[in-house]
Each structure stands twice: as structure tokens, then as C-alpha cells.
Design brief:
6 helices; 2'-dNMP_N-hydrolase; 5-stranded parallel beta sheet; 3-stranded antiparallel beta sheet; 8 strands; alpha/beta; Nucleoside_deoxyribTrfase; Nucleoside 2-deoxyribosyltransferase
């Protein structure tokens, strides 16, 4: 009689980011999953739960289905890794990924992040304003908060010392995770996966 205990399953990692919108997304996810496997982890990407979406017409109901399927995938994962790259040439990251950071943080799961753009968030805002609107940031007249400058509309340019909004990068760091930076996307991703590996497997 076989009395051996079954091998424990590998921790499941939700692969979050704007990857789903990028050219060659399927190949990119395969490379990411390979990195996870080599680290003793199982990568889970949004495409894994969206087979039924392929034949549906775009629209509100399809979008709601995708949101539900992604939520279900996150519920079944032990941790998440998030791309914090600026999205659509703006300063901020993909807003859907930001929501996913908050969702998994609320579940108390381990998080890590990665980006190819290690500039401070205010630098990204300054470049965006210049390119999109032709204006510059200015020094704030008020005190306190997380920023010393404001844009031409008077909005505070917050989150100094971080590469993204303090609530997104902050939730990752508050979970004990790191935001890893490298000019090569998969290298930065691999660094973030190693951070999760150490925290999940020791």
C-alpha cells in the first residue's frame, strides 16, 4: 500500500498587467509561465479563464463576463505579480491592474510588481503633461501630502519616491513585496517572481 503523502501543489501566481492588450500576448504569457515553473510556482494568466470569451461579440455583457472570470482566477491564486508600466503613453498604469492590486491586497495575499520604467511618478506626469498638453508642472503653494508640485489644472502631483500611484505600489510594498525594475520586461518580471518565490517557498 502506498503511504506516501501527495506532493504539495505549487503556489499559484496571478499574472496581472496590461500584457493581455500587448501584441504577442500569448507568447509573452508562455514565457512568463516558464519563469514561474522554473521558480517552483504556477503562473495563471487571464487567458486561462477566458476560453468562452473568444466567440462573444464585444459589449458590456462580454466585458462584465471578463471581469467576473478574472475575479474568479484571482480568488483561486495564492499571490499576484503586477506590471506597473505606464499605459497607453500616459503616466499611470493600466487601471484594471490597479483594481486587481487592491482586490488581492484585501484578500491578504502576497504581491510583487515589476516595470521597465523606473522613473519616479512625478517625472512621468511631467513628461505626459509636456507631450500631451504642452505645459509644465509648477511648485505647490500648499504644504503636506505626498507631492511638492502640481499640474496646470492645480492637481497635486502625488506619490513622490514611487514609480506609480502610492495606493498601487504602496499596497504591493505593504504586503511585503518589491517593485522590480529592469529595462527588459521579462528580466524585471523574473526578479518579481523570485521575490514571491522567497516569500512563498522560503
Amino acid at each position: 500500500m502506498n503511504t506516501q503523502s501527495p506532493s504539495p501543489r505549487a503556489p499559484r501566481i496571478y499574472l496581472a498587467g496590461d500584457t493581455v492588450f500587448r501584441p504577442g500576448a500569448a507568447d509573452l504569457f508562455r514565457a512568463m509561465k516558464d519563469i514561474c515553473t522554473k521558480a517552483g510556482l504556477e503562473g495563471v494568466c487571464p487567458f486561462d479563464g477566458q476560453a468562452e470569451v473568444d466567440d462573444l461579440a464585444p459589449g458590456a455583457q462580454t466585458s462584465l463576463l471578463i471581469a467576473r472570470l478574472d475575479r474568479d482566477l484571482m480568488d483561486g491564486c495564492d499571490a499576484g505579480v503586477f506590471c506597473l508600466d505606464p499605459f497607453r503613453r500616459a503616466a499611470d498604469m493600466d487601471p484594471g491592474t490597479a483594481v486587481e492590486i487592491g482586490y488581492m491586497a484585501a484578500q491578504g495575499k502576497k504581491l510583487a510588481g515589476y516595470t521597465v520604467d523606473g522613473r519616479a511618478y512625478p517625472q512621468k506626469v511631467a513628461q505626459y503633461r509636456k507631450q500631451a498638453w504642452g505645459d509644465s508642472l509648477r511648485e505647490r503653494t500648499g504644504n503636506g501630502g505626498s507631492g511638492t508640485t502640481e499640474d496646470a489644472d492645480g492637481l497635486i502631483v502625488h506619490s513622490e519616491g514611487m514609480v506609480q500611484n502610492a495606493m498601487t505600489e504602496g499596497f504591493i510594498r505593504l504586503s511585503g513585496g518589491e517593485v522590480c525594475v529592469d529595462t527588459d520586461l521579462l528580466t524585471a518580471f523574473g526578479m518579481a517572481i523570485d521575490n514571491l518565490r522567497q516569500r512563498l517557498l522560503g
